Amino acid sequence: MFEISPFPIPHHSLSFLLRQANCNRLLDVARETYKENVGDIFQLNRTLSETHDLPFILVYQETGFVFALKKVDLEGELPKGFINAAMRKGRWVFSSMELVSEVLLGPVFGDLLSGLSGLFRRR
């Protein structure tokens, strides 16, 4: 759940705000940034699947995106570079350094901070 200082925003309200284009320029910037980042994550999934010749599946959890791989699709160990691997319900669930790196998070924070600066007046 997303929160803005002491007033929590219900999930359904946030979804509504994110879907309504052209009501707030700052929300439009955040919406576009979100779309680009999700696109980058899906591209990373395709790239890693092709590189390692494994059918990775993207799964969204409360903590964000993770990769999943059926136990039967993996012979031996996961390739190097994957972290936080755990077996859940007959499949491996894990992340990668690329997924959590600043390459994907950097643009989000950069755009967010540049957009937020317009909310404050200098004295």
Describe this structure as you would to a colleague.
By secondary structure, the chain is of the alpha+beta class. The protein has a single domain (8-116), classed as MutS, DNA mismatch repair protein, Chain A, domain 3, CATH 1.10.1420.10. The chain has helices spanning 11-19, 25-52, 97-100, 102-116, and strands at 3-4, 7-8, 57-61, 64-70, 82-88, 91-96. The strands form 2 sheets. A 4-stranded antiparallel β-sheet has the order 3-4-6-5. The model is unreliable at 1-9 (pLDDT under 50).
Q: Kindly estimate the percentage of residues that lie in beta strands according to DSSP.
A: 15-25%
How much helix is in the residues? Answer: 40-55%
Specify the CATH class. Mainly Alpha
**Number of continuous helical runs:** 4
CATH architecture: Orthogonal Bundle
N-to-C order of helices and strands: EEHHEEEEHH
Total number of distinct structural domains: 1
Give the C-alpha Rg: 18 Å
How would you characterize the largest beta sheet? 4 strands, antiparallel
Roughly how many Å apart are the termini? 34 Å
CATH topology: MutS, DNA mismatch repair protein, Chain A, domain 3
Note the overall shape: elongated
Structural class: alpha+beta
Name the average pLDDT: 75
Q: State the low-pLDDT regions, or none.
A: 1-9
Strand order of the largest sheet: 3-4-6-5
Got a strand count?
Answer: 6
